[in-house]
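From the methods appendix. Each design record in this collection lists the tokenized structure first, followed by the designed amino acid sequence. Records were kept in a plain field format so they could be parsed without special tools. The example shown here is representative of the layout used throughout.

RECORD:
FOLD TOKENS (237 positions):
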């Protein structure tokens, strides 16, 4: 079943996106400090020069003629326990869906945070008019690719937005479009096996536990770029 029930909220958020991850980049040796342009160099709190390597997720120093690599702090999470082979297959199935929808999520999050900032000082009427204009612009350009998302990809998208914003997609739609609109989009979402009200809870929902494990693994290995504030999410037991 093609996922199209979240088209409204996606079309509000999503601008153009392009993301290509070349696995060979992960095996590249970081450049020497002397090879980097001066505008890429920074100083740490001790006065040492370094540059930040986005692929390796590390600070690269040159100390006494030797290259020193200081990796970012890694998030540590135990691998999920699989009850059977079907469980394991679903885990890797989710990984494919996560990797497909993640670039879309990053731009949706950026658009949402941008909308929050842009409309913060607007009155309700001006805010509604501005959001409607943005929705129509983006819908015309990205309707086809949004409608190509599957139900599972839509569910993963909804959970990622909740993890990043602390709000369910239902709450986001209600905030941007009004309670009545949010009610009907929740009904439509449930009809497609996508609940817009269900919060992201890795302790309570096994699928969310899998998604959290996959997120951390992909971030640690550099397959996915962490979103700003990704470490702010705290799981409550």
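DESIGN:
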């Amino acid at each position: 079943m093609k996922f199209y029930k979240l088209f409204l909220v996606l079309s509000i958020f999503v601008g153009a996106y392009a993301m290509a991850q070349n696995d060979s980049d992960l095996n590249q040796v970081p450049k020497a400090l002397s090879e980097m342009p001066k505008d890429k160099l920074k100083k740490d709190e001790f006065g040492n020069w370094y540059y930040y390597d986005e692929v390796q997720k590390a600070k690269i120093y040159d100390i006494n003629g030797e290259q020193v690599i200081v990796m970012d702090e890694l998030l540590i999470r135990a691998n999920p326990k699989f009850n059977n082979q079907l469980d394991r297959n679903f885990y890797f199935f989710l990984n494919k869906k996560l990797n497909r929808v993640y670039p879309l999520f990053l731009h949706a999050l950026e658009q949402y945070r941008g909308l929050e900032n842009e409309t913060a000082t607007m009155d309700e009427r001006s805010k509604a008019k501005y959001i409607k204009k943005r929705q129509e612009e983006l819908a015309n350009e990205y309707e086809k690719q949004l409608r190509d998302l599957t139900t599972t990809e839509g569910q993963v998208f909804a959970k990622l937005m909740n993890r990043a914003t602390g709000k369910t997609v239902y709450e986001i739609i209600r905030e941007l479009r009004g309670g009545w609109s949010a009610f009907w989009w929740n009904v439509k979402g449930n009809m497609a096996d996508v609940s817009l009200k269900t919060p992201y809870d890795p302790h309570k929902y096994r699928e969310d536990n899998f998604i959290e494990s996959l997120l951390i693994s992909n971030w640690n290995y550099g397959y996915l770029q962490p979103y700003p504030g990704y470490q702010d999410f705290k799981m409550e037991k």
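APPENDIX NOTE: The chain has two domains: 7-18+77-232, 31-71.
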